[in-house]
Amino acid sequence: MGTGGTTQADDLADIVGQSLRMPMPIRLRATAMVAGLSLALVPLLAPLTGGPGAGLPPALAQQSQGLKVLRISAIPDQKPEKLNRLYPLVAQELSQQLGVTVKYVPMVDYPAAVSAFRTGDLDLVWFGGLTGVQARLQKSGAKVVAQRDIDASFNSIFIASTRSGLQPFRQQKGLTSLKGRRFTFGSESSTSGRLMPQYFLTQAGVKLSDFADGAPGFSGSHDATIALVSSGAYDAGVVNEQVWLSSLKDGKANPTKVIALWKSPGYQDYHWIAQPNLDQRFGKGFSSRLTKAILAWRPSDPKQKQILELFGAQKFVPASASSYGRIEQVGRQIGKIR
């Protein structure tokens, strides 16, 4: 059926027409055959009766219509509740700006985001400084799209439980007061919660083996670090400044339980990175349109204002791979980049 230039619908019509000219007993058998055939052809005929992809599961329907989906994600540096508020808004805004379907795909941890970008399962990812470098090194031609206005000089905040007796200090050498203490980083692949803090600790003469039990902890995220230090489970820890200030503002960091010890010097951090093949998949000039769309976000637009507030920024600015040379150097020094 459906050969010689005819369609399934043509064949079905021929069978029905022929059956009407048959004697009654034969006609009944032909009618039964047609009924069975109709059921079998429902999925095939759906596009003819209900538009492209009608009757198919959403994912298959999109494929049948030839829709291309821009898959975005981010390292899970904060609680899922905040990520699930922010990135669907980003997906909606980009979809409207670019005229394509955009889907947010949550990641379970930092390495998962890097791996999914490497395999091409993610098209655009909000990476930290370290994970961004890791992703680009594993994907030739990957493009740095943009960073926030606060990412050109980002900072880490070393914090302490008020139970610990630790006091704030102004000089980097004050980090030596953490020797022998229970200390936790955030994620092992976090730029602001591990990479640069370890670099500053090393500069001050503090080795990881100097902490209580001969090693630091790894909480997994900035929010978790604040919670663990606040509870007294760890004497001290380190988080990115943006999350620290946000936690103080919304009351998640209680100054009677946790305090800031020291603010680090600035360094490059978060940035958007895109796959190298977006122009081939979505059309010539798509990568440039994507960059311009993100750089155009302003607080004057209500939806974009909400996105920027959740990002803790006033706007996004141009960024380049060369800006992250120091991050790559430190990553190699501590063995996170090989």
Description:
The strands form two sheets. A six-stranded mixed beta sheet has the order 2-1-3-10-4-11, sandwiched between helices. The longest helix has 27 residues, at 24-50. Residues 1-65 have low confidence and may be disordered. Helices cover 45% and strands 14% of the residues. It has helices at 8-20, 24-50, 58-64, 80-98, 110-118, 129-138, 191-203, 222-231, 241-250, 278-282, 286-295, 302-311, 325-333, and strands at residues 69-74, 101-104, 124-127, 143-148, 156-161, 183-185, 217-218, 236-240, 258-263, 271-274, 316-317. It has three domains: 8-62, no CATH class; 68-150 and 269-333, Periplasmic binding protein-like II (D-Maltodextrin-Binding Protein, domain 2, 3-Layer(aba) Sandwich); 156-263, Periplasmic binding protein-like II (D-Maltodextrin-Binding Protein, domain 2, 3-Layer(aba) Sandwich), CATH 3.40.190. The protein is α/β, with parallel strands linked by helices and 338 residues long. Helix 4 links the parallel strand 1 (69-74) and strand 2 (101-104).
Q: Helix count, per DSSP?
A: 13
What structural category characterises the helix and strand content? alpha/beta
Output the strand order for the largest sheet.
2-1-3-10-4-11
Could you tell me how far the N terminus lies from the C terminus, measured between alpha carbons in angstroms? 58 Å
From the spread of the alpha carbons, the general shape counts as: globular
CATH class of the largest domain, anyone?
Answer: Alpha Beta
* Radius of gyration, CA atoms, in whole angstroms: 28 Å
Low-confidence parts lasting 5 or more residues at pLDDT below 50?
Answer: 1-65
For the biggest sheet, the summary is: 6 strands, mixed
H/E series, N to C?
Answer: HHHEHEHEHEEEHEHEHEEHHHEH
- The CATH level-2 architecture of the largest domain is identified as 3-Layer(aba) Sandwich
State mean pLDDT (0 to 100 scale). Answer: 86
Number of domains: 3
- Name the helicity range: 40-55%
What fraction of residues sit in β-strands? 5-15%
Identify the CATH homologous superfamily of the largest domain. Answer: Periplasmic binding protein-like II
Which topology of the largest domain does CATH recognise? D-Maltodextrin-Binding Protein, domain 2
The strand count comes to 11
